[in-house]
């Protein structure tokens, strides 16, 4: 809470003289145990919700990840208000966790706000680490050779899946709803990027990740993500300046391609280094540590070159895929993923405000109509991608199309940036959120139906039901 | 970065109109990827340091945890300035991580400060989760029945280990150095609490955790911690008001005792519930999730009743110790601990400012003399505790005394709160920090010598060298 960066240069002793200024929780030693309390309690709620949700979904023969999302909605902004975030316009008074913390600690109003923001930010970063670890695990489970085989198919699927919803969405909004060009383009862009996290988790739970369809979907979702980031950069600069920064667009396209191909090429070399390092280490964590150093470093690079952290983590997993220490790593990463990944899914659910679906509120109606249109475009615009696959007789085109539907976190990023930059008005923002929610919730059961999967998922005491499903 | 809590009630759209006010990274969507970059890069540095340090220590036949601490010192405030925290009076310009982030992102000075504080706070909380998970693991590895057997011995050791350094430190400072009563009492209090984290980790690495000596040390360190918290509360209220809040002191004593005994008694019931729940769950994470829900909940309770989170986590581990699903849990918790615990040890090292040891700086000299005195009291005040053990012929009294020496994180908390409350002047604060650093660094090799442990630690490709050592 410094108004001037030079204040940080003062020693903490001097800073404490500035008592009337609300200090950040890191600075005030009295608040830091309360922030920890908030994080611990949030994690307990998130874990309880995710486990109850996953088990309930399993009972109804639905993918566990859908249960985690729904459980997130229940504990989040839409219902119980236990896990809420300041970005949603939520005040401290709306946070169930903060109410509990306030009842057991005496805090000044400034301290309450500071603790709320700190703990929300920490949970957000843990969720981001969750999706990074998920993509690392998905990378480990993906087969690089098979992914190379489906590379051209995946590129085709991705391009169709970006072009069709973007064109149909933008044109439809301008023609049917008379939306101005820039917001229409922004909304169209929000329709493009597939949520690789949700789709690949469902594929993994169905035991279809290593099928040809699964690999095309994952490959296309990765390329999609890259294309989505490029589209976002273009649209955001368009919204800000009214013109397109061509240099930046070229940088993003070249950068993303070079990053993915480069890491796969370098991977062959690192693979051997990794195995050698693991063999030489004698202390605890000799496998997980080098693996996570690599994964987090690649995620950092992905983030640093203004692509995405998850792209780097996925590439890291893909590269280690053929490593010798991999089988052991596969087992070791599971409990880590089990503890981090649910934070991501529950918070995605918790952030989704189903209140915007309420048709009795007049302001929601305009958004609802546009939302219906966007949902239709979002679903059909991706369904057609299945028919973009060529030279693969007998492939399940429906499953590929359905697998590309969920927008998840990427769509929410679009809505957030669009609303922050002022490009999107409230009805359009609401519609995009509704589109993201519905596509995310609808895809998992549809994907199961598309695969004709009526098999009972393996009921096992073992923690790794998806692993069993893959080998089975 | 809100000056007024009501501002949080505004929607993010409205908040963005208040652009001149520096917003927290959570609120500003442009900063949040930079915070993530900072966290990822910090974790990479921490992991690299911890692994290099641990392996180097192993080479010199020293406990790996000592290597992690030294590696932390090297990457921290004393040398490379890669991992630094705002509490140490460090500005953004001193942070290596922030310099890297600034070179790849364009940020306003306010954004830089905000990102630095957010990222430091997140790493701090991850370190706190690290020590919580460490104590949970230590609890799992401890044998409740054996701990009950040594309960009275441990209580004796703990009481002597609190009384002797406190009395000798306070009296010595007042008589020899003519320190005023309140700062002398504060410094004396800082000499009391043993760092259970460091000691138990070293015991575990030596394969001595389950020995009678090991159990007495761990038990005494837990009681010590509780006594230390009580002493801190008493001293802090004394420093603040000039008198002692008797009600609070009684509350802390009763609360801590009731909490530990209560959780052990209730544990018998929960144990069966835990096994039943684990059996019923069919989705991934069926063991780790319930275990961590329990551990984090207990840690939260420990924190919420103004004791310590680590006390709750330790109790949770102790209780699950006799559970049926325990053997599996033992294996599953390892990679999680391997990723979290090093964050704690490296950051403890990173926060320790060895610059205060430099005798060429005149201001350090007064502190150095007092420091020598405090270190002597700290070491001998705990060494004598070994001779407080009765009715245990043939027990290694030296090992018990040495095991109680390290002050670690608890001592740093005393120094931090003492300096923030104004009770400690600079020389005394510096002396306490030196005492903490030396006792922490000195104990691991001394402990190894005290146990007469010259056996080569098991060189294994398996990640769990301490586990092997225990069974061996």
Written description of the protein model:
Two copies of one chain form a homodimer. Chain A is an all-alpha fold. Chain A folds into two domains: 18-124, no CATH class; 136-341 and 353-471, Na+/H+ antiporter like fold, CATH 1.20.1530. The first copy, chain A, is 71% helix and 0% strand. Chain A is built from 19 helices and no strands. In chain A, helix 5 packs across helix 9 (196-206) and helix 5 packs parallel to helix 13. The first copy, chain A, starts with 11 loop residues before the first helix and ends with a helix. Mean pLDDT of chain A is 79; it is low at 1-27 and 455-472. Chains A and B meet through helix 2, helix 5, helix 12, helix 14 and helix 17 of A and helix 2, helix 5, helix 12, helix 14 and helix 17 of B.
